[in-house]
Amino acid sequence: MHAPHRTGRPVVRKTALVATAAAVAALSLAACGVSISPASPSAQSGTARGSTTQAGTAPSSAGSAGATGTASAGPTAEPTAAQWKTYTDPGRNVSFELPADWITQRVPGKAGKSLRVDVRDTSGDVVATLQTHISGLGGACQPKTARPYTVLASIPLQIPSSNKSAAAVAPRFVYRVIQGGTQFYASYGITDQAAGADGKACLVYNAVQSDKLGIYMFGDVLQFTSALDGSAGLRAFATIADAQAYMRTSDYLNIQRMVTSLRALG
Q1: What is the 3-state secondary structure (H, E, C) of 132-191?
Q2: pLDDT category, 39, cuts 50, 70, 90?
Q3: Residue 151: which of 98, 218, 204 has the closest Cα?
Q4: Strand 147-156 versus strand 223-225 pairing type
Q5: Segment holding 253, helix H or strand E
Q6: Distance between CA 87 and CA 262 in Å, rounded?
Q7: 230/266 Cα distance (integer angstroms)
Q8: Largest CA distance in the chain
Q9: Contact indicator for 119, 131 with CB cutoff of 8 Å
Q10: Burial environment of residue 265 by CB neighbours within 10 A (0 to 12, 13 to 18, 19 or more)
């Protein structure tokens, strides 16, 4: 059974929860030796960047062929967070920026190089997970199970990738929507591989592979599928236009800036 899907509706923020979570996070980070430092505002604050498609993909018939990640028409984008900070893992392998009132939570995993960090917003919800040296990926699907999908944002990134497959693309941040039975399911993250051919996909990964970080992700879910009722952890929208409208919200713009700030260190 799938976990409940998220919606694009704003979440009510709870001050008490924020204060408690921030206090716990501060103690936890200090104990782990994690470096958190202030980050200067980015030039992309308050803007939605992105191109229409990703290499090797094409807009599906389910959406408009002219769909863009910049949403030039309609309401203007909401502002991003005013204050930002920088997270650097204890091993100084990666760093990224996040809103000052969001928290990072190190998730214990396998011994060795593997790192997993959940990022929680002010309501305590996990909005993205950064994980390196992921193992156990695999799976295949039959072409007949592929369903239309659309790339609403595609932003090139300066992060390591060693993907040499036929479907490889330069690493990038993507925001993609796949058509379900009654709704459209949206996901964001990093990738270095085209999701499918002819605007259809059935098993999509939000992951990049490199020699230093192994297979790594930074997004809402590691993978999603063409299941008619969607995959666990995705946001559900009634239309592609609604999924595009979400791109103008502070929630999305904060996430996009955070994920696109990812850097590999050393």
Answers
A1: CCCCCCCCCCCHHHCEEEEEEEEEECCCCCCCCCCCEEEEEEEEEEEECCCCEEEEEEEE
A2: low
A3: 204
A4: unpaired
A5: helix 250-260
A6: 10
A7: 38
A8: 51
A9: no
A10: exposed
Q: Distance from first CA to last CA of the chain, Å, rounded? A: 42
**Phi, psi of 240, deg, nearest 5:** -65, -35
- The 8-class DSSP code of residue 45 comes to T
pLDDT digits (tens, 9 = 90+) for 81-93: 999 999 999 999 9
Which positions ≥6 away from 243 have C-beta within 8 Å?
A: 8, 152, 177, 184, 186, 235, 237
| Integer Cα distance of 248 and 262 in angstroms | 21
Instruction: Give the pair of three-digit tokens for residue 40.
Output: 């200067």
The pTM for the full model equals 0.75
Residue 37: in which H helix or E strand, if any? strand 35-39
